[in-house]
Amino acid sequence: MISDLTIIKIGGSAVTDKTSPEGKARPEELERIAEEISGYDRPLIIVHGAGSYGHTYAKKYGLDKGFDAEGVMVTHDSVRQLNDLVVSALRKHGIRAMPLNPFAFAVCENGRISSFLTDQITLMLENGLVPVLHGDVAMDSERGACIISGDQSLPYLAKALRAKRAGLGSAADGVLDGDGKVIPRITPETFGRFARYIGSSAGTDVTGGMLGKVKEILDLADSTGIDACIFNANEPGNYRRYLEGEDIGTIISRCWKDGRKKTGQEKWRPEKQDRKGWRNGKTGPEGMTERKNRTGKNDRTEKRTGKKDWTEIILIWDIY
Question: pTM of the prediction?
Answer without folding.
Answer: 0.75
